[in-house]
Amino acid sequence: MQELTNFETIAVWVVLVISLLGIGYAFLIRSQIMAQDKGTPRMQEVWGFIKDGANAYLSRQFRTIVVLIVVLTFVLAASVLIVPPTREAVERFGSVEAATLWVAIGRAVAFLMGSLFSYAVGFVGMNVAVEANVRVAAASRKGYNPAMQIAYRSGSVTGMLTVGLGLLGGTLIFMVFGISAPDALLGFGFGGSLIALFMRVGGGIYTKAASVGVYPGGKGEGGATVDDPPDGGVIADLVGDNVGDCAGMAADVFESFEVTLVSALILGLVLGDAVRGTIGDGEYDLRFVIFPLILRAIGVVASVIGNFFVRTDERRRNAMAAMNRGFYLAAIIAVVAAAIVSQFYMADPVSGVVDWRPFLATVAGVILAIVLDKVTEYFTSTHYSPVKETSRASQTGAATNILSGLALGMESSVWAVLVIAGSILASVAIYASEPAVTQFTAVLYGVSLTGIGMLLLTGNTISMDSFGPISDNANGIGEMAGLDKNARNVMDDLDAVGNTTKAVTKGIAIGSAVIAAVALFGSCLTDVGKVQLQIGQEVLTGINVASPLVFIGLLIGGAIPLLFSSLTIRAVQRAASQIVNEVRRQFKVPGVMEGTVLPDYARAVSISTTAAQKELVSLGIIAVMVPILVGFLLGVEALGGFLAGIILSGQLMAVFQSNAGGAWDNAKKYIEEGNHGGKHSEPHKAAVVGDTVGDPLKDTAGPALNPMIKVINLVALIIAPIVVSVRLPGEPIGIGVLAAMFLCLLALIWAIWQSKREAEALA
User: Fold this and answer.
1) DSSP result, 496-522
2) Is it the case that residue 228 has pLDDT exceeding 60?
3) pTM, 2 dp
4) What is the rounded average pLDDT for all residues in the chain?
5) Which residues are CB-contacts of 202 (< 8 A; sequence separation ≥ 6)?
């Protein structure tokens, strides 16, 4: 770190220490959770089924993806042989040979680190959630606040581990590689994003195959109620909450957290090179690189402080208000601290003028998170008119309920995209005075800081998200264990609040994915420009949509989210059909419905697990191969059009599916509260159908688009310099490139065929 001032060196070390303290704080909370009472023997028996199923799922998932991780580790290391190390890497390590070795090792290790960190966040998040759910159920017998505290603080373990590991990885890479950090950071971001894709897709298919299969198989036909012990699929349903909403969401937000940091560091380095002297002169203003690291550290500290104020009492019993209080307090602390750092650190060393623009872009991100919270809450909460409208539509049948939910989801995606567009426009306005030569990079840097601001309080966000499935599982355990009415009332209320927090955090996850993708898109253009400058090509300064090849790329990019959604929904449908048949079969077993014979819970768990694992590799291949094919066959400008198409289409589809599903879910709950005839009425039956349709949209297809968008953008960012180097303008594509693309096309066709192939039924 010889390029840093004394203050910057100290700041980087402090950031590293804070990341380690965040990880340590996570495990301190975990030890406190583990010390809590686990309740009655019957509660622990039900919990044991859930724990065994969840651990079996993630263990099998890791065995499925570990081979791909090993292969890609070597591929990333070898990528440096095709594109030489950057000028910054040569400057950092002294020679081309040394730089080549360091970048090869750095990319491979960073990819491995990003993969393992992402998996660790998902695994620990799921493990803590499983350990917490029985303890929340036990605490509900003591009172509302004890149960709420355990549920929220269990989520805090995942939240603090997310921010701690994400910050640790980015800081270590910067400390080792300095100005050449982008060469290795790409591997770190790609590893985290790829594992998040697997965790999101696998967990989403698992949880919704179980949930959708349980509804008609048990609740609709067998006479069983929610979380009824005779239902053979109920344990698979409860396991799904953990592997989908805890493990999947934790890995998803972790990779958004690290990808926004990666893009900010890449763009900050380019901007720092441009504003200090001339580009390529070896002089850098590293304030633009260090500032994002400091912001992340501030967010960790603010989240810890905010968590201490999340509490309520037996009179108010308002968990949502308590969590909002902690979030807003943490936001205020983070903004004030960022302002203080800007005042002293972002001042020009010569003139003393403070550059407030990075701070303002960060604040825009904080505001974006809050506004998206409110937009999502408006369209999915039972307290507002959209969900009530869908509930009223249930009075005339399932068809009108579904039509109302579809319309609601479509409208909500419009408002969400306008909010995101407004945040990008804010960055444009903030950097409007920047000189023309650096304005494009500065605006994109501002967008990356907006993403950092949006996820500044990731610790609180993950805590709120995990609160939902933990409370849901606790309620299920309470139902199956036959707890008393007061305890059930506590858990019912926490479960209802958890439904809202899950929907709200999904909005943040989708918004952060789009912001991160836009920042990566900008990083891709700047990286391409640097390579083109080195090899003497005309520098690409924009994307001409009127070009036929670019427009083709745009069309393909817009279609990919629909393909992904189709494949994941079909996977849920196939597995759910098997679970329906299995639950129906078990209801016919003598003694199951009477409660004298225990259902075969493990069989439904195995069906969901098999279905989820079948999709992982094929969907991962699609995400990796499509940008490679577009880039090498159509060119780098068409690749830019492809990325633009996938960002827009992916955002619209993700919000539409997430909010439509959330609205159908809460429309059903609104009726269950006693409105429009209450439970078991005809409107309730119609709402159950809508909720069943919406489940795979809001918890599988929609959330899977978040990591997919970022994986594809990172793949494009990695291959774009290679495309520029091997596909020269005006020259035909080489035989070697065509042969490689033919193999990629065969892999893509196999992946789609494999994903659509019917799974073999269990014997």
Assistant:
1) HHHHHHHHHHHHHHHHHHHHHHHHHHH
2) no
3) 0.84
4) 83
5) 57, 61, 243, 248, 612, 613, 615, 616
